[in-house]
Amino acid sequence: MPLENSSAPSRSESRKATGRHSWLRISSWVLGSAFLGILLVALTNHAVIWSSSNNYCGTACHSMTWAAAAYQQSPHYINLVGVRASCGACHIPYDSGHATAGEYVKLLLFKADRGAKDFWGEARKSIATKEEWEKRRPALSNTFETYLTRHNYITCRGCHSLDSFGGPRSHMKMVIHQGQAKDDAYDCLQCHANIGHVYEEPSAKLGGWYSVEQATAGAKLFADSCSMCHGAGLEGGGGPALTGVTWQQRFGGAKLLAPWGEIKGPMAQYAGKTFTTQQSLDILAYLLQQNGLAAGNQPLADTRQLSVTLPEK
Ligand code: HEC
Ligand code: HEC
Ligand code: HEC
Ligand code: HEC
């Protein structure tokens, strides 16, 4: 009787063992790939978050030195509530924490595209000095503004809802932003220039914001539409005084945007008028003149000029 036969496995047994083997191999493959997948996703997500952080964008990247310094002068870095918007919060249109699967893929594609360009730029040291930076800044700024406009300011609106303002002048803020929301074509920077980055010295320019001719035009509009409530000499009446202590208390340290918003928004309604942007700027110029702020050579011509701060006395 052939001994080998008794110790050797039968054919069906050996088939079973091979089956078990390949089964084991397949399941360890599946498990291994799943593990690798999870690791990869975790690493990718980590890289996405890290490469969108202030640390990476603001300090690791030399060419961003000046943008990062200007960001630190902005209300999104220092504010009363102590909430800081990171570089990625404004510059990257998808939030990795709350993205759907589809958005996550778009986020990865966005990062891959941006990352490659940034890496290439950094590697070529295309922005190594402050002079080079100054030269490149307008174009970079433009590109990003176009991007924001095309995406309807999605990142800004992710943090700010424009129908729930509290605090002082909340009525004006509602009225002013309503016009925006209606046509669903937002343009935040049209009124909020310097909101992400402030490059000028805070006190570099105080006054000189309007021209004398403009204030004269504004005086006429004021006499027609405002004086019945605020007095011919701005001394007050049905409405508050618009000079002296009252003005200081309301607008000292505020941006020019604040009194302009009152004029263009609720006060136009009170007067039963709609002012063009230029008319509302002319009236503002008149109020500035009456509050002792010196005229300059150029008129106020654009709401982008309203991000400067009124003196605090
Ligand atoms: C509150 C939103 C916001 C935050 C936070 C923010 N940015 Fe910006 N960034 C903008 C806006 C808006 C512009 C375009 C208009 C401008 O220049 O202000 C811009 C422009 C830029 C530009 C183009 C050049 C320029 O300055 O105009 C660069 C580069 C830039 N940002 C990098 C960064 C980096 C790096 C950080 C973080 C250290 C950062 N940004 C944080 C909103 C933001
Ligand atoms: C991560 C959330 C976040 C993002 C994104 C963000 N903001 Fe803000 N924003 C804030 C916080 C927090 C403040 C400070 C609130 C305060 O001081 O009461 C603020 C303040 C402001 C203010 C008032 C401060 C001032 O000086 O006028 C404006 C205007 C503003 N943001 C506009 C924008 C615009 C425009 C964008 C898009 C370019 C944007 N924000 C993106 C969180 C954000
Ligand atoms: C037509 C001009 C205009 C446009 C466009 C505009 N805003 Fe404003 N915004 C104002 C004015 C005026 C104020 C009040 C400023 C003040 O009181 O100092 C204001 C105030 C704010 C504040 C501060 C609110 C507070 O309680 O202090 C935030 C935040 C803000 N705007 C966000 C936005 C965002 C986001 C967009 C774009 C989706 C936008 N704004 C578009 C005019 C505008
Ligand atoms: C029907 C009366 C009336 C008219 C017309 C009117 N205002 Fe007013 N105005 C008021 C009242 C009342 C307030 C106090 C705040 C409020 O009720 O919103 C005020 C507040 C203001 C403020 C804010 C001052 C503060 O204390 O916060 C400014 C600036 C202002 N008006 C300017 C104007 C200008 C400029 C015009 C002309 C375009 C005008 N007003 C037309 C009644 C009026």
Rounded Rg: 31 Å
Q: Mean of residue pLDDT?
A: 83
Cα end-to-end separation: 115 Å
Proportion of helical residues:
55-70%
The parts where pLDDT drops under 50 for at least 5 residues are 1-9
Ligands, ions, cofactors: heme C
Return the domain count: 2
Strand content: under 5%
Tally of DSSP β-strands: 0
Summary of the model, kept short:
The chain is mainly α.
Question: Topology of this protein?
Answer:
Elements: H1 3-7, H2 11-51, H3 54-60, H4 65-71, H5 87-91, H6 101-123, H7 130-150, H8 154-159, H9 170-183, H10 188-191, H11 212-225, H12 227-230, H13 244-251, H14 257-271, H15 277-290
The chain binds heme C (4 copies).
Overview of the molecule:
- By secondary structure, the chain is mainly alpha-helical.
- It has two domains: 52-191, no CATH class; 212-307, Cytochrome c-like domain (Cytochrome Bc1 Complex, Chain D, domain 2, Orthogonal Bundle).
- It is built from 15 helices and no strands.
- Helix 3 (54-60) crosses helix 4 (65-71), helix 11 crosses helix 15 (277-290) and helix 14 packs across helix 15.
- The model is unreliable at 1-9 (pLDDT under 50).
- It binds heme C (4 copies).
- One heme C is lined by residues 222, 225-226, 228-230, 238-240, 242, 250, 259, 262-263, 266-268, 270-271, 283.
